[in-house]
Design a protein that fits this description.
257 residues, homodimer, transmembrane helix (chains A, B), Rhopdopsin 7-helix transmembrane proteins, Arc/bac/fun_rhodopsins (chains A, B)
């Protein structure tokens, strides 16, 4: 286990704790807000909360694993010999990344056939992207990391293409007052997801030891907050506006639970 | 306790954690979705969530037991001497397998008499199947394992026969738009349940030590995810479609909980 400085140890420690609190709070918010949107958008909010809830669980575990890997006593950080289990991130992404795409698809309220075909295609590509990235993440050398990273980029490019081409057409059919928000949600997905490969490539820059460990952990943590809690907030806003816009047509009235 | 390699230890460790997160997330999803289906289908979703909730509890316990059986320190895995409690799986199945059959029966909305007679017959056969399988699972020798495995197969064959003959007639009376989904749910039940005996027979192949332990744990874990969370998602989809189809007839309007 790479030795980290007391500052690096505390930074990562507090970032994990912060993210657990953020994800758990986001979960409560999304689930409590379900009754304030039309029934058609409730599954999107349910799934937004699942994503942050699953992430909260994994940040709790990763925090515990970080604490087990080091002791910070008398001002000195030392490695305990227990491995820091980085795999929690990949296990988390395997579950949450396909779900993030599902919430984006659901909030658009496409036809049943479109919803199911897009869910299967984008969900499978997302799972493949995560699975291909993992062997590189745990590899000790840069060439192996670069090989798997590049393979993982192929489904990523496909997802981006689908988001901008396939969903692009559907966005034009959304109500005028939400088109802009849906575009923002898509852009947030693209930008935050694009941040992960940058973090993944940090070791290429020749950084080593505690600095690379800290940079990777903080980088992935920021990306997770934006991609999960941030996207969920946009999904909530889109759901509220679409519910209001459709109220006149469907006779739906937003009401308290 | 069989010695496992660091790779095998981490694979099983992460698979148990992944499955806990999946089952807990599935439970939240099924219970939150109750308000989106007609009252007649809410019990099916309640029970789908019970099955995954019970499984989440057992995967939490089995994860703890795996961690207690081994230490992974300084890159070396060693057995602590504490037994890995495999019985959690059988305890889980004794509760969840009859409930899985109940959710399948409930979502079909048969007559009260049919529902109760099928529940009793299929539920008892499922419990018998689990009870007969356990003595073989803990047996040290192959002949004993094969004997109990074969006895356990008798109620299994009866369940399959009931699913395809008895439920077959009822499926033809389902609304046209869900017949296909109900057939898929039955096929998923059959295929995922058929996977358990294959895993059970892994020791027959002459595998030993850490490899057989890892193969059995990963095999049962995959089967559990498909049979419990996977079936639950199909039950949810069937419930939503049947609720929509009956909305015109029963005057049911999807409304907030």
């Amino acid at each position: 286990m790479d030795i980290v400085t007391p500052f690096q140890f505390s930074l990562v420690y507090n970032a994990f704790s912060f993210t657990f609190a953020t994800m758990a709070a986001a979960t409560a918010f999304f689930w409590l807000s379900r009754s304030q949107v039309a029934p058609a958008y409730r599954t999107a909010l349910t799934i937004s909360g699942l994503v942050t809830g699953i992430a909260a669980y994994h940040y709790f575990r990763i925090f515990e694993s970080w604490n087990a890997a080091y002791t910070f006593k008398d001002g000195i950080v030392s490695a305990t010999g227990f491995a820091f289990n980085d795999a929690y991130r990949y296990v988390d992404w395997l579950l949450t990344v396909p779900l993030l795409l599902v919430e984006l698809i659901l909030v658009m309220r496409l036809s049943r056939a479109e919803t199911s075909s897009k869910t299967i295609r984008l969900g499978s590509a997302a799972a493949l992207m995560i699975v291909l990235g993992y062997p590189g993440e745990i590899a000790g050398d840069i060439p192996t990391r670069a090989l798997w990273g590049t393979l993982s980029a192929i489904p990523f490019v496909y997802i981006v293409w689908e988001l901008f081409r396939g969903l692009g057409e559907s966005i034009n059919q959304q109500p005028a007052n939400v088109q802009n928000l849906v575009r923002k949600a898509r852009l947030l997905t693209f930008a935050s997801w694009g941040f992960y490969p940058i973090v993944y490539m940090v070791p290429y820059a020749g950084l080593t030891g505690g600095t690379v460990t800290t940079t990777i952990q903080i980088g992935y943590t920021i990306a997770d907050i934006v991609a999960k809690a941030g996207l969920g907030i946009l999904i909530f806003l889109i759901s509220v506006r679409k519910s209001e816009a459709e109220a006149g047509i469907d006779g739906f009235k937003v009401h308290a639970a």
